[in-house]
Design brief:
16 helices, nine-stranded antiparallel sheet, 393 residues, alpha+beta, 11 strands
């Protein structure tokens, strides 16, 4: 296996802030052209990868990923998607939550930078400023901008401090975040993402520039605040999917085939579940989690969506004996996540918690101006379920 590297990789442990500085979760990181160009320019070795749908790509396959590396790859729009291929996810719940939170945060930071620039360009006061001859001279070329940044370094620094102070005060005044410490950290990350050139323009706008930056930062910081809810919804969905997966595996076990009415009792036994997992490993059967970044700023498609897909053997919401489907024609059914979770909850009271997470996240997305949608494909021919959650950033 080729040894791979990426921006700021290596090491593991806990940072001074109390958060993990690495995610111990084997995964494949597929690069888009932006990421490939970056790695080639910096002479970072790459390897060929194969996705669950047969797609070939280029990128990294890491057993452990540094959080700062993942933030850099996502926020700088270098990834097309991430794939995790496992026979079970229960044992990696904590790192999976961390991965999901970092991915949504990074995707929103990637969206924030061009969005702030668009707002700046459309601002009438900014247009008037840039039309003034003295301002034209400052922003006429890259060399002129670089020189202006040096000359006005104090001005830019003062604006950065003012924006941070305004955002911190507004966040506390309006109680924007359940966890204030997390919220302030997201604000800092967004401020760090603003380019110096953009800060220079904002500094010339005076109070209007300060208000424009603060409003945009707070809006995106509150969206990043939904990362925790998304990670909980995803882990609950995976738990529901994993149960269906184990039921599907159990149908091939001799004991379960002889006593199909006892499948639930068998599945409650840890030794039986462990036996099923070992058989799945031998057969090369697994669940797949795919997080896609197609359409983020910096790519040609122009849309801005984060998609999370979970593929598992077994038909979620079907009775275990019903999944044999010998007595009728097999079909492909399409539905959405809410309907799927309602179906699962009929036979599993625990799945009702998943419904609560779903409703809460959908409402939170609407409140913060993000569209949330889902789709589910129940393929009776392949005996598998593919569930996709999409978030318009």
């Amino acid at each position: 296996m080729m040894r791979t590297a990426a921006p700021q990789t290596g090491g593991a442990g806990v940072t001074d802030g109390g958060t993990f500085d690495s995610i111990d979760l084997p995964a494949k990181y597929f690069l888009n052209q932006n990421g490939i160009d970056y790695c080639l320019y910096n002479r970072i070795p790459l390897r060929d990868l194969h996705g669950w749908d047969g797609e070939r790509g280029t990128g990294f396959e890491w057993r452990r990923c540094r959080t700062d590396s993942l933030k850099h790859l996502v926020a700088r729009t270098m990834l097309s998607h991430i794939e995790l291929d496992r026979t079970e996810f229960i044992s990696v719940r904590a790192p999976l939550i961390s991965l999901t939170q970092l991915v949504l945060a990074g995707a929103l930071i990637a969206r924030f930078r061009p969005e702030l620039k668009r707002r700046l360009v459309s601002d009438p006061h900014a247009a008037e400023l840039l039309a003034i001859s003295s301002a034209k001279a400052i922003f006429s070329s890259r060399d002129a901008i670089a020189a202006a940044i040096k000359v006005h370094a104090d001005r830019v620094s003062s604006l950065r401090v003012a924006v941070e102070t305004e955002c911190f005060h507004a966040a506390r005044r309006n109680a924007c975040f359940e966890d204030e410490e997390d919220g302030l950290r997201w604000i800092e990350a967004l401020i760090d993402a603003i380019g110096t050139e953009t800060l220079l323009v904002l500094s010339f706008l005076g109070p209007e520039g300060l208000d424009l930056a603060a409003q945009s930062i707070l809006a995106y910081a509150k969206r990043i605040g939904l990362a925790g809810q998304l990670s909980l919804l995803l882990t609950e969905l995976i738990q529901v999917a994993e149960k269906s997966y184990l039921q599907s595996l159990a149908q091939h076990d001799r004991s379960a085939r002889s006593h199909p009415e006892e499948i639930q009792r068998f599945l409650a036994e840890p030794d039986f579940r462990e036996k099923l997992i070992k058989v799945a490993v031998q057969r090369g059967e697994s669940m797949v989690l795919r997080i896609s970044f197609a359409g983020l700023p910096g790519e040609r498609s122009g849309s801005s969506r984060l998609e999370i897909a979970v593929r598992t053997r077994g038909l979620i919401g079907y009775d275990p004996q019903q999944q044999n489907l010998f007595n009728r024609r097999k079909t492909i059914k399409q539905t959405n996540l809410e309907s799927l979770l309602k179906s699962a909850a009929r036979d599993d009271e625990y799945a009702e918690l998943s419904l609560a997470y779903y409703a809460g996240f959908e409402q939170a997305c609407t409140k913060e101006g993000m569209a949330f949608s889902s789709s589910v494909i129940l393929d009776e021919m392949k005996k598998e379920t593919v569930t996709t959650m999409a978030i318009a950033l």
